[in-house]
Automatic annotation (TrEMBL):
GO terms for molecular function: aminoacyl-tRNA ligase activity; ATP binding. This is Threonyl/alanyl tRNA synthetase SAD domain-containing protein. SUPFAM superfamilies: ThrRS/AlaRS common domain. It holds the Pfam family tRNA_SAD. GO terms for biological process: tRNA aminoacylation. InterPro entries: Thr/Ala-tRNA-synth_IIc_edit, tRNA_SAD. Residues 69-115 form the Threonyl/alanyl tRNA synthetase SAD domain. It comes from Aminipila terrae.
Amino acid sequence: MGEDYMTIDISLEAMPEIKTLTWEMAKEAEYFANQVIWSDAPVIMRHFKTQAEAADLPLRKPLAIDEDITIVCVGDVNNPADCVACCGTHPGSAGQVGLIKILKVENYKGMFRIYCEAGRRAMEIFDSYHEILTTLNNKYSAGSKDLLDKMSGQEEKNKAVRNELYVLKQSVIKERIFALTAYLESLNAISDQDAVITKEYNDMKIDDLLNIGRAMIPYLTKVLAIICRTDNTVLLFSNGKIDCGKLVKDNAAIYQGKGGGNNTSARAIFSKDEFIDTFIDLLNKHLR
């Protein structure tokens, strides 16, 4: 018995054909166990000095001890719901348990482990599940019978929206790649320019900006710095003649930055936005 649930490990040596304890089997066992509880069947403890004295009882498991045996029967001793040797503490009747709720079943070391709760704690779990169910019903304007259908329908709508957003995002990325390519080509005609070409995008994720920057590598003769102030991040790209990873490694830490990369692309992340401009300025001075 733990703070959050109880566990019971069982083996079914008498039924070797059962390889898996399914959830349907567990639910059926739970139903019959609760039927015994709700019938308030008596719990009868009987003591025997020897194994032979208890041999005629309808035991669920063979006796493993020879003397001083306590047998617990739930229900009619001649046709009990359960009859097993046990020296633990027991209620006077099954109804004192209140109810049993199985939470999970799994295979465990060649046996089956059942996670469950009983009595007040089982009711508390049911209450918490009911609160979650009520919240979901209200959110989806559903009842318990059609909640899953409405959730599935909403998920399909969400999936369609995600697909539309993905297509739109790819379109924006292509447009920005096209525009940035044209911008780089226009710079070829300008002789006096910075050693680092900068472009700023604050409305895209870093992974998308990496895709844009990598698409520019074949067109680069200088270092391209894509800035995202939303994440205080600078992405560096080059054709490999200038090692981007080394630029970050040698210079980012000066302005409390960190990051890394390889010769054609690298990333530097800063704690403050103001360090981005000083970092770019340092690179321009370093590469002139």
